[in-house]
Design brief:
This protein is of the alpha+beta class. It contains 20 helices and 10 strands.
């Protein structure tokens, strides 16, 4: 197996972290000859492998320590090397992120204390800079405030269009984040113009890269109000926007897959022919069928849906929207508007809202059948003491402390335990046993890492030659 050298790993890390960019008021880069003294730490001749050092000492610094792919970053000597450099950075910075990276695994230290539950692969520096930010979001409070804002804009300001209410709220929140002047007692025109001016200035660089921001600002500026003189409403709006800004303490919102949730609940209700469930899951408080003619409409919709569900997801969605029998949740209505006006908008996993909604509806039902509620996913540690009929044991990259492809063959003597690796071997052996002893009936190994001759010999002895398939072979094989 060919391993990347430390220089190659460092060069790769430079690009992934974004240390190759030139940014104002920041020293960042990688190398082996730059000393801390050259970076502004007088008299310190130690040399970090990579650094992100903003002029503003209140912003966290980042110190990078790289090793070749052949090195084991679980060894304490590499941790000591990193924390020594981080300690130097801490003489000038309030917070320092330390990153130990060997091209496969990554360990992260916040002020020299190892962080838990961080991304298993190396990320852009922006990810690490937010790790010191309190990352709790009071979602219920945000939902409550959002409802108040929506009602305020609808009733007190007279904005009838839901999409316009969403845009106005979103722009106010972004404006508030970037310092828009918004205080109780100001009139409506001043508040609206303050938000618009802040958006235009703060997002100027982003607008060059994303023309949709111009569309957003254009829509915001053209939103019409029926009433702009209710000072109590203006003050309430400002207060609630401020409260939401205070609630959101993280730059990252782990938002729900709203389309997935909608189709899941919708599909579940139709599958069971449970119309009450359908109304409950869509938030309809009153049963909408009050007379025979209305029942006929619902029956017709059910028949039309049977046909639409053989087509695309968007065909199902537009049929529901067209008939107006089932209310569309606001989030979905917003995404549908983007599907029409800005179809390239990213919905999830770099997929546009257009490509997502134009998938076959059967792909949604297949995913729902698999994921809800019977499929169970867990980490290897999370299944200790559990038993399941069938288990898929995934062996992949991204976990620093476990390399089953290296250590598992040592269990059967296919390879020897290297000197100094006894603890690593025992840790891998014990967890390998946990994973293999969970199934009652069937155990599948899904291996996504390169398989060398030693690991292949181990797997062959474990499962037999006839039971090893490439992924394409497995898809073409009728296994029972």
């Amino acid at each position: 197996m060919n391993y990347r050298t430390e220089d190659e790993v460092r060069d790769s890390a430079k690009l992934i972290l974004g240390f190759d960019k030139t940014e104002p008021k920041v020293k960042q880069g990688t190398g082996q000859i730059t000393t801390f003294n050259q970076l502004g730490f007088k008299g310190i001749i130690d040399k970090p492998d990579g650094w992100y050092l903003p002029d503003d000492k209140g912003i966290p610094a980042i110190i990078l320590e790289t090793k070749s792919e052949s090195e084991d970053i679980t060894l304490q000597k590499w941790v000591n090397e990193l924390t020594k450099n981080c300690k130097i950075a801490l003489t000038q910075y309030k917070h320092v992120v330390g990153i130990l990276y060997n091209g496969n695994g990554v360990r992260v230290f916040l002020d020299n204390i190892e962080a838990e539950s961080t991304a298993p692969t190396l990320q852009d520096k922006s990810y690490y800079l937010t790790l010191f930010t309190k990352n709790t979001i009071d979602k219920q409070q945000i939902y409550n405030l959002t409802k108040r804002i929506n009602d305020c804009l609808h009733i007190d300001f007279g904005i009838k269009n839901l999409y316009h209410r969403m845009i106005f709220t979103a722009c106010a929140l972004v404006g508030k984040r970037y310092g828009a002047f918004m205080v109780k007692g100001m009139d409506f025109t001043l508040m609206k113009n303050s938000i618009l001016s802040t958006l235009s200035k703060s997002l100027e660089e982003s607008r060059k890269q994303n023309l949709k921001l111009d569309l957003l600002i254009e829509v915001y500026s053209e939103i019409k109000m029926n009433n702009t003189t209710n000072q109590d409403a203006i003050d309430n709006f400002i207060e609630w926007i401020t409260q939401i800004s205070d609630c959101v303490n993280s730059d990252y919102w782990n938002g729900e897959d709203v389309m997935g949730i909608f189709f899941n609940e919708f599909n579940k209700a139709l599958k069971d022919s449970n119309m009450q469930l359908l109304f409950d899951t869509l938030g309809m408080k009153h049963f909408p069928i009050k007379k025979k003619s209305e029942k006929a409409k619902w029956k017709e919709l059910q028949q039309q849906l049977e046909d639409a569900r053989t087509k695309r997801a968007i065909d199902v969605f537009e049929l529901i929207k067209r008939t107006k029998l089932i209310p569309i949740p606001p989030k979905l209505d917003g995404w549908y508007h983007l599907y029409q006006k800005a179809p390239d908008t990213v919905y999830a996993s770099n997929a546009s809202i257009q490509s997502f909604l134009e998938l076959d509806y059967l792909q949604f039902t297949a995913a729902i059948d698999f994921l809800f509620p019977d499929a169970m996913f867990s980490t290897e540690h999370g299944v200790k003491g559990e038993e399941y009929d069938n288990v898929v044991f995934v062996i992949s990259k991204g976990w620093n402390l476990y390399q089953f492809e290296t250590y598992a063959p040592m269990i059967t003597g296919h390879s020897n335990v290297p000197e100094g690796k006894q603890a690593s071997y025992e840790r891998n052996r014990n967890l390998f046993y946990v994973c293999c002893s969970r199934p009652k009936k069937r155990l599948f190994f899904f291996v996504s890492v390169p398989i060398d001759a030693v690991f292949r010999a181990f797997l062959t002895k474990l499962v037999g030659t006839d039971n090893i398939y490439t992924y394409s072979q497995y898809l073409e094989t009728n296994l029972k």
